[in-house]
Amino acid sequence: MEWFKKMWEAITKAWGSWSLVQKLILGGIVAVVVVGSIFLVGVSSSPSMVPLLTSAITDQTQITRITNRLDEENVMNRVTGGIIYVENDTIARQMRAVLVREDLIPQDTDPWAIMDMERWTLTDFERDVNLQRAITESLEQHLESLEDIDSADVSLVIPEESLFASEQNPTTASVIITPKPGSDIGENRVKVEGIVKLIQFAVEGLTDDNIVVSDITGKHLNNFEGLESIDRLTITERMLKQKTALEARYMSQILRELQGVFTSKRIRIINMDIDLEFVNKTVQTEEHFPIEMTPEDPSTPYPDRVVVPTFTESEQTVGESFQGTGFNPEGPPGQEGQTPAQYQDLTNLVGNYEKNDVITNYVYNTQTSEEEMAPYEISRVSVAVAIDGVWTLERDEKGEYIFEEGTLKRTYDPVSDELLAKAQQLVEHSVGYDSNRGDTVTVQHIPFDRSEEFKKQDEDYLRQKQIQRMLFYSIIGLLAVIVFFIAFRLISREMERRRRQREEELARQHQAMREQALRNAEEEGIEVEMSVQERARLELQENAMNMAREHPEDVAKLIRTWLAEEN
User: Fold this and answer.
1) How far is CA 320 from the centre of its chain?
2) Do the beta carbons of residue 409 and residue 402 sit within 8 Å?
3) Which of 361, 364, 365, 366 shows the shortest CA–CA distance to 312?
4) Average of pLDDT values for 256-261?
5) Which residues contact residue 493 at a Cβ distance below 8 angstroms, ignoring those fewer than 6 apart?
6) What does the alpha-carbon distance between residue 33 and residue 40 come to, in Å, rounded to a whole number?
7) What percent of the chain has pLDDT over 90?
């Protein structure tokens, strides 16, 4: 009691010291705890419920129809987030059967979702269904991983195993694929056959006759009946591609061989025709070689290998011999013999007959090899090659090209017969010439039409000459301008020098006259008033003269500097 009393006093003291806001916060916390406790007690006391369907139902009409049907069966239910809950697993299984029977399962619900319910045990039917689902989903993933398929929907029918094979229903598969934009899977037979094989090998007991592959438009893709003409067209297209590739390779070989002797501009392959015979055959070869009795000893300096063509495996000898008279037919006793007249002279003669048969079985080494021949054979090769001669530009005595009547003068050198024969041999070696199969190789000398090339060459030559003349005249004009500028500069300096000389001469004359006047005035005793400028100039002149007397070298350097700056 004392402890409770102290505790109550402490709480009362603390409560009295709190402000109004603190008291309200504490009251809110207590209220939240009480309400939460009541909710937890209510939820824990309510019976546990299980979902009727694992997937949520978005259509409210469907939810209403299902709940009404559950209410008719007196089944307690609750809807939370689109999922309908019932009391226990037993009621859930019963109600699912009712919904399936009355077609109340929503259309957008996965048909396999019913099998996804958690159970303590699984039946054989459920295991088979789960296996079928796993195979179906795996096959859909395989198909959708192909680059030509956007999505795939697979439906498998795996019947129950029957006791008798004659009564066993076949396994069937129907596949609907959505091709990607730009895919040719609808017209490509090879790709469709690959899909059929993929489906066949993924499902045990499935044959290609029981597989139907269609696109989203319902087109039956793996129906190959009546496609023989398309196959022939495909084969013909491959044959033409092979022929074109072979002709291109031979043309490249011919050009490579002849370009080492002639330039590429002088060679034209007029015709290249290769007749191909497409075959598909296999050649079997049987080879017999001797039997090695003693192998070669590498330590001996002489050959000691012993071989025999064959050796006897078994031998059978049969001998027959006879000696005596021949058979003489006779009649009844007392009657003449029945020997014909023509054989009566042969009676009572002694004959000798002997026959010997020997059968010997020999053993020899045999090797059988099977070689698959190429899918085509060259039945005939026809090649026609034209070779141009050499055009040479003529030069004059100065080494310049001769230009006459608006064109460069050229000379033509034809190809000699010896070079044509060698070129023909090169072409024959390049194409594998065989006269027995009727191959034809023709190499002729034909002058090519090079008027456009010569016209362009002449225009380039004229343009080059014009540029040379322009450069020449430009250089001459530039030199003339430079010479004129130099002459103008020299004349200007000379005129400036003469003008300065005249001004200096006039200044000296004026100064001399002024000095003479001063001296005359001094001699006559006349006071002459001088201006400030004249006095300064006179003092400067006296100082310069004194400096020239005392430091003549410095004055000479100063004069040279003035002259260099003026020039």
Assistant:
1) 81
2) yes
3) 361
4) 77
5) 567
6) 11
7) 0
| pLDDT tens readout for residues 340-393 | 655 555 555 566 767 788 888 877 777 776 665 556 677 788 888 888 888 888
Find the DSSP H helices in 46-123: 60-72, 89-101
Q: What is the CA radius of gyration of the chain?
A: 62
Q: Which residues pair with 316 in a beta bridge?
A: 359
Rounded alpha-carbon distances, angstroms, from residue 511 to 89, 563, 567: 143, 22, 26
Element (H, E) at 335: none
Residues in the chain: 567
Model pTM? 0.35
In 10 A of CB 187, how many CB atoms? 10
The backbone torsions φ and ψ at residue 189, rounded to the nearest 5 degrees and listed phi first, read: -70, -35
| Alpha helix segments (H runs only) across 145-294 | 189-202, 228-258
Phi-psi group of 383: left, alpha or beta (phi > 0 → left; psi -120 to 50 → alpha; rest → beta): beta
406: tokens are 């608006």
- State the average pLDDT over residues 45-67: 75
- Segments in 446-551 forming alpha helices (H): 451-523, 532-550
Pairing of β 211-215 and β 172-179: parallel
CA atoms within 13 A on the CB side of 504: 6
AA letter at 552? P
Q: How far is CA 5 from each of CA 1, 2, 13, 17, 179, rounded to the nearest angstrom?
A: 6, 5, 12, 19, 84
Rounded Cα–Cα distance for residues 51 and 44 (Å):
18
d(CA 87, CA 93): 11
